[in-house]
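pasting for the record
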Amino acid sequence: MLDTVRGIVPSFIRRSYAMKFGIALLLLGLSVGAIGFVATAQITDSVEENTLEDQQAIAGQQANIIDNWNEQNERRTASTSNTPVVESGDDDEIQSYVTSLQLELSGQVESIHYADQETNELIATTASDVDTLEDTGFPDSDQIESARADSVERTEAYVTDGTPVVAYYISTSGSDDTAIVMTFALEDMMSNFGVEGESVTLAVDRDGQIVLDDTITGTGSDALSNDFVDSTFLTSYDEDHELLTTALASENASHSGSMTFEAAPASVISEEPYNFDADEYVAAYHATEMGWTVLVHTSSDDAYGFVNTVNQYGNMATAGGVLLIGLIGAVIGRNTAASIDRLTRKVGQMEEGDLNVDFETKRIDNIGRLYGGFDSMQSELKQQITEAEEARAEAERERERVQEINEELQQAATTYCGVMEDAANGDLTVRMDPEASDNDTMQTIATDFNEMLSEIEATVENLNQFATEVAIASEQVTASSEEVRSASKQVSESIQEISDGAENQYESLRAVDSEMNNLSTTTEEIAASSNEVADVAERTAQTGRDGREQLQEAIEACEQLEEERDAVVEEFEQLRDEVGQVDDLIDRVAEIAEQTNMLALNANIEASRSSSGNDDGGFAAVAAEVKELSQDVKSATDEISNRLEQIQEQTDRSAEEVDRTSEEIEQVNELVTNAGSALEEIAEYAQKTNDGVQSISAATEEQAASTQEAVAMVDEVATISEETTAEAENVAASAEEQTSALTEVSSSADDLSQQAVTLSEALDRFETDADADENASAVDIDSAEPVAEPAVAGEVSESDDEDVAPATNENTVVAPADDEAELAADDGDDNGGDEDANDDDGDPQEATDETFSFGE
């Protein structure tokens, strides 16, 4: 930001403090002046707005005076019509009452009339020499016939007997076609109407005619003088004037506003009798409840007098502040600029080499301290120059000494670089000579480097020996795995031959068993058959019992469904009853609506009969509303009835569906119950059959014991032969899997051997004299020896022992009870084979990973 400003400001200004100070002072003065003038203008605008609001409030106050006067007159008229005397209809009493009432309200009521609404004839009045309302100048003779007893009507302003008045009238409730008319003089409100000062306050009606003012009316005996009636009352305000058109733009009683005009006012107030000829004025307007609008005109000098004073003094204060800033700034700036210029000249002399310049001054402010600072800097500069010359000589001597050290270090570094290059090329037998340099750091580097090479040489030698041993061990593992694989293959072939022999033996034993069965007696056949039948009967009985339990659960579930169905049916029945009740209620509502409609029809007939009487139409309107309401109720009732019929139909359909579902559930329940009974009978019959067969079997077994024992021995031998065949097949499969695993072990061992050879070739390029650590190598080789050969050999021997041993011991072998036991045994053998294969695969992979690690 500052760099940008410096680039914009010309250099001749930047070099002169006095010019920069003058520009800053000028900007400050302009800123203060602008702020002052703007603030003064804002204050002026604010005060002007307040003035406009005050003028608008004044117009509102005058409008309230008129509204209060109007409300008071309406209340008096309404209360007069509701008095017992007026309601009695006695003409003489009413005449006496209105006369006394005028005397009581003297000065407030101009006249009181009790008139016939049709003929406008005055039945009772306080006026003299008048017979009808037209004789009094009453302007609403045509409208009084439609006057009602519940609201007070009002006329526009008019003149009666030379007095401006407003008449209020209302129909009486005591007798037909009579009304009370009360006229009120406008002078009643004059004591509070108007504004003090050079202003004109008017009230105009909806047609823009002046009905009230504060200039000619005056107060007391001068109020509403003949001059006002003759020259001003009901005179039209200028129709095209902006104030009038704006004030009459809305009929809302709260319509108000204010504005300033810089032109001549309306001609009606610029001439006699108002003589309001201001060139600039403030106007405010406010509407009233009775339709009149108050217009307030105030000259700008009177309205804005305080505003002009504030504006004048504000501008003067701003100009004085700017002038004061200029004078003070000029005095301070000139003195400061002169001191800075003198200091600049002295600094220039010191810059040219004159260190004897005098920086003494009598000032003690910041500029004086700046003089003292330059004086101290001059003394310090002299001292530093002397010290710098001495330091230069010392630095020259030190430079020569450092040059000698650098040459010595360079020679030692050259020698050490040659040793490092030989070591980098693979010769780990080289060493650095620590005595090649007298520098302690270089000697430490040589010693540490020699120790590092010794450790690297020993490590490389150990790695070389380890790689050789790994390669040898890998070859041995490969050879051993090949032998084991070959042996496993031979074992597999032998086991396959054993399996084939066992199969042949099994077939032979089956043939012998068949022959012995053919030679057995009829009793032996009956015993065997009875055993099978007994077994089947037992399982049939058990199955029947299980089925009976499951059917019992199904029966319970069906019973629960039936209970839920009953609950749903009950809910539907209840819903159907409630819908019926709602339907009855709707019928009652429809009946009531029909009766209401008939009542409304009768009311219309009665209203039409009495239309020629004094009724005001209210009864007919009520009858029409009742009829309309009854029709709406009937329409809504029909719509509700239609919707309830739809709901009833949907409910019936749902009930039918539930009934059908209930019948189906009952049928299912009956079928399940029958099935349970049948299964129970089957279980009983199977149990009886089992008991009978067991008795037969016991008898026949006693008769054919010897034959059965022989057949059992043959069956046992056949079963053992069959198991031997199956186990032999499992052993053959395991042997094949073991052979495959050994093939993978052999492949992994070959890979390990290749990696070891690669490592040895990589280490051969290093020349070493150190001896490898034999103990570390032995430990590494021992940890790497248990590859796959011992584990594989152990697994093969265990498999052979477990699979072959059962075939040689007939007394310990038990035939599987059923097919599930055989499947479980087969699954166990398969899982065991997979685990062996996984174990065989894991070791070579780990060895291979270790080999790659060494290679890296």
